[in-house]
Amino acid sequence: MPLTINDELVDEGLLDAEFSQIKAHFEQQANVSCCERDDEFMGYAKDNIIARVLLSQKAKQTINDPDPEKVDQHLEKLKEEYGGEESFYFKLGIAPGNEEQVRKDVIESMRVDSLIEEKSGNGPKPSDSDIEEYYNKQKKSFMTAEEVRSMHIFKSLQQAENKEDLFAEMRKVRDAARSGDDFMDLVRKHSDKPEDEADLGWYKRGELMDEFELITFSMDIGEISPVFSTQWGMHLAKLTDRRCPKPIPLDEVKDEISDLIKAEHRESNLKAYIEKLKEKATIKDDPEST
Question: Could you tell me which CATH number the domain at 147-243 has?
Answer without folding.
Answer: 3.10.50.40
